[in-house]
Amino acid sequence: EAAARAAGLAMGRCEDAPREAAREVVAGRVVAWYDGRDEFGPRALGRRSILFRADRVDLADRVNRALGRDHFMPFGPALAEEDAREAWSGSWRDEDLRFMTLAVPASEAFRSTCPAAVHVDGTCRPQVVTADLVPRVHRLLREVRRLGGPPAVVNTSFNLHGEPIVHSPVDAVATFRRAGLDVLYLGDLRCPGAGGGI
User: Fold this and answer.
1) pLDDT band (50, 70, 90) for residue 198
2) How far is residue 157's CA from residue 28's CA, in Å, rounded to a whole number?
3) Helix (H) or strand (E) holding 13
4) What is the mean pLDDT of the chain?
């Protein structure tokens, strides 16, 4: 609250942040998601993430511009473990694909339904999200499906290109404002961007 207030952001408490964020993802908004403690490793896996629909290439283009990324830099899909099997071909195990570090051949169906998360060579770098490891993002993904959204949501790290992933709420607020994203969730606190939101 202090970080949002100091930046002059409007804010409100959510009863169910994963459900509300899922509604915004389905509506085509780009969600900045800051939740709990920092992660360790080469990828943001649901604690410091930017999330948007994997079936919208226009949103991928918009996020690339907002973050200063090059257009050829790939995005990875996050899928709830219940929906993950449809994303790739081959005998990969879900537990091999929890950390968004392996590229696997995307299935034909996934290439068609989630083009923003498929590389030019037809592969994808999925994150299989389980309820035990990332419960709030798992709930968000299940809610996206329940609302008729795509089987995957793009999950990219919450940072501008060339900068570290956001660490503190102050970092999150500053990056959110500089990138001009639609909505920021700081745990159960929701801060709309200049465009408003739901």
Assistant:
1) very low
2) 18
3) strand 12-13
4) 94
Helix (H) / strand (E) element for 23: namely: helix 17-26
Q: What residues contact residue 107 under an 8 Å CB cut-off, 6+ apart?
A: 86, 87, 88, 89
Question: Cα separation of 50 and 63, whole Å?
Answer: 9
> Structure tokens of 40?
């360790």
How many Å is the maximal CA-CA distance in the chain?
Answer: 50
Please give the DSSP secondary-structure letter assigned to residue 96.
G
What does the alpha-carbon distance between residue 96 and residue 10 come to, in Å, rounded to a whole number?
40
d(CA 144, CA 41): 26
Taking CA atoms, 155 is separated from 4, 54, 167, in Å, by: 23, 9, 17
Angle between helices 17-26 and 135-146 (to 10 degrees): 40
Angle, CA of 62, 188 and 33, to the nearest 5°: 25
The model's pTM is 0.95
Residue 5 CA, distance from chain mean position: 24
pLDDT for 18 equals 98
Q: Which residues pair with 119 in a beta bridge?
A: none
Helix, coil or strand: residue 192: strand
